[in-house]
Amino acid sequence: MKKNKKNLIICVEKNTTKRDFQRFGINYLSKFYNIDIINFYNLINKKKIKKSKYEKNIKNLSDLLKLIEKKKYVGAIDYLRTSQFNKTIKIKKILQQNNVKVIQVHNGLLPIEKKFSKDKLLKIFKLKFLVKYILKKLNNFLFNQSFIYDISLISGLEAENIYPETKFSKKKIYTHSFDYETTLKKKKILNKKNLGIFIDENLISHPDYKLFNIDINRFKSEYYKNLRKTLKYFEKKYKIKIVICVHHSLWNKNFNNFFKGFKCVIGKTEEYSKKASLTILHQSTAISFSVIYKKPLIFLNYSKLKSTFIFNNINRMAKLFNKKPYFIDKEILHNKIIDFKVDKRHYSKYLNNYIIHPKANKKYSMWNLLVKEINR
Question: Rounded to two decimals, what is the model's pTM?
């Protein structure tokens, strides 16, 4: 640890993986700062989880204060995003009160439900939903008014709609998503006409579902059976071989059992997105790679998920590309012209809204811009 380096804290609420370590820009940021990754899960949820090798756990606010006093952090990158604001705002305010710049990073934006959709309007007429709706809006209002970020890295035009608190940020840096950052490293990859990919997102057992109290594991066996059948269907109809880009959360699982009959890769989604001639997915943020490289998209949904937000998210994302999803548990009537169509207008709009802000300098690393701002 070099004495001339200042200290930077990265705030997380779940275990940090090797993939996170890379995406958080640690290799670049550590050239300028001593980095501490602090997991606040135990403090926020009053439950215990084991820390990963990349991080430290914080049990209480007094421990945080001692750490701040000892390290004199110049900045705190905030990834406390899915927990309720009233459980995390104390942490953020303590950091600011101790002269630590709190930094918001839009790592991967996804389309959100329109504020006044037909379904929502119908729901709020029911008392139960009306109360929930009002409380949610009140919580959002209180958060937006009571906390102001020092710096926000904004990766798309829709950022301020998805994260309204961004509007009040003291300093806005227009940049791009984590996925776009990885494409800045130029690699020569040849396209393969007979290659398709499926971007897995661990749809049934994603670890983040615990934060939303969602449990759909009862559908796991049927889901994978239908998914394999659907992917084989597209292999046959379009005379391609489909490679599964396995979600990182299945790293230590026996994922080959889920995708019997298919080649599986992990940690290579960008590489395979670039050389594939077709991308099949649900609603993963890794769609960014296929949009950047202008690959045709096929969306898959699953009717058993109709009662979850996942179902609507898939439909919403498909609509942004003027497409409709196929259902893996229903008969598929494919349309090759639509499936292989790349509508440049829709792709360009998605790129600007969710992947790279039009005001961003496409040549510069997001971490380079952040370091310059912190050091001002």
Answer: 0.86
Nearest Cα to 353, choosing from 216, 225, 162, 191? 162
Q: State both tokens at 244.
A: 């599964």
Token representation of residue 322: 């003027």
* 3 vs 185 pLDDT, higher one: 185
How do residues 149-194 score in pLDDT, each as one tens digit? 999 999 999 999 999 889 999 999 999 999 999 998 866 676 778 9
Check whether residue 273 and residue 202 sit in a common domain. yes
Structure confidence at residue 112 (pLDDT): 76
Paired residues of 266 in beta bridges = 246
Cα distances from 174 to residues 177, 349, 365, in angstroms, run: 10, 16, 11
The domain that holds 262 is classified in CATH as 3.40.50.2000
Residue numbers of the domain that contains 61: 6-114+145-177+357-374
Do 153 and 223 lie in a common domain? no
